[in-house]
Amino acid sequence: MSAPHPSSGATSTWLQSIRDRTGEIVVGQDIVVERTLIALLTSGHLLLEGMPGLAKTLLVNTVSKALHLDFRRIQFTIDLLPSDIVGTEILDEKTGGFRTHKGPIFTNLLLADEINRAAPKVQGALLEAMQERKVTLGAETYSLPTPFLVIATQNPIEQSGTFELPEAQLDRFMLCHRLSYPTPEEEEEILRRNMRLGVNKKDGGAVAKTEFDLIGGDAVGTTEDLVAATEAVHGIHVSDVFLKHVIDVVERTRQHPDLELGCSPRAGISLLKASRARALIHGRDYVIPEDLFALAEDVCLHRIRLSYEALAEGKTPKGILNEILEASVS
Amino acid sequence: MKNWLLAFLAFLFATTHLLGETPTQRVGLPLLLEDLYLKGPLLEPVPRTTREIPLMLRMVEVKPAQDGFRYTIEVQGLDAGDYNLGEFLREAQSESGHSSHQVPITITTALPPGLPRPAELQPKPLPRVGGYRALLWVLGLVWVSGLVWVLFAGRKNANSTATITPEPTLAERLEPLLKKASQEELNTDERARLERLVLGHWRKKVPEVANLPTSESLAHLRKHPEASPLLLQLERWLHSRDSAVSDEEIQELLTPYRS
Prior knowledge:
A: alpha/beta, Rossmann fold, Helicase, Ruva Protein, domain 3, two-stranded antiparallel sheet, 13 helices, 13 strands, B: 259 residues, alpha+beta, 2 domains, 3-stranded mixed beta sheet, 3-stranded antiparallel beta sheet, 8 helices
């Protein structure tokens, strides 16, 4: 497919084709696809919170294939070392010198599964690389491929044997989306599609096909298309009035009596960037309050912290944020 | 010859026993008398029926012996003095009396003789005024009057302040902004506030949207047949690059909120 036209209309059509391609494989996770594209177009990173079995890996794999991007997955465990992610220098017996072995972080799309299972040292190594987009191995510093997007997942319920990410590190994720279970209609569609998968015969044996076997076909776009779309995001108009709305929401999180920690300036920047990308995806060349309010939960919720008094009263961050958003439009 | 030797040994034991020191212990500390041979039937401690009995006895072990028994007894003295242990023992199964054995023991004390006792309290008549009952009555009256004040006076004050500073309604907050808009004097802050109030107006007006979270309600309003045209025009005016909305259109756009 040819590169999208610089106009936002053509780009949004191209982005819609990626969503459609993903929809052919993954049922009912359109919002997650949208958030993944927003993160990809704004060079942010995405944290997904949800139960196992919600097709997170399948979704990221499908998006990467649709965009012809390199994809790697790391399952975070307690015994993982920083060198398992970023790589290390290995002694080459033939030459007697050190040879650099690049880790799985050298990819375009990295799925860090259950990031809170690894020790803080490992989390720190990944988050540092996410921030700087560079990795130092021995005396050499290597730039990470472009685009580079980390999609991390964590299970919000099972907390035993985990290391919770501190607020400062959570702040590095541009978006944190909470996955929900599919609706009954979507669940039915998942089951029907699964029944049609059939069997894969190979080497004289047979194995039941999975949804991963459906990923394939031509890529919907190339890296050049993605670069053009990223440029198009920067062409989205942001009015002064919209900036005032962003400042109002961020300021309200800092002034709220139930919040010990409000949104950082990085949260405001993320709101602005993500709103521009969402406007492009929805075929507009300017941002509107709907973009801001639709993304506020994913941008702000993981960056705010409740006071002890509010926690004791049984309040939740989501409830407080809804209160703030409602107060800003009343 | 053998009989003479036994008689001599018995005499020697008796004399050493008689001439030996009387077992002595301090008040409250246990005194253990081991293998004390007492002739006659089996003995047991006389039960302590009153607190005045100065010794406490505990039979640790009883072993049968010729014409009697050997006792290991633990004695605890509660008052200093010289006592005969036999007076604190009686024949087993007998209901009264005490044995005729002579087993002297001494309980000593480090305190000077005589027991100091606290002076006995003399009951005094309570004064008629200023007593404990009067104090309770006063405190009770103060508490009740405080409760009455909190229930009635406090509520009255709250009502009066509420009437003094009523919270402005959405329409009241919109009005000055609409006036300024008609004179084209709105700055960026006021435009942003105007837009938020207009969105709030529609959220309250459309019942199916009122209970939705803000993030979802705006998406619904943009599709609502009544709200959608006005909101889309407002968006174009405030957010689009060229803001191609004439003054007449702006006035027309804001007319529904003026009523």
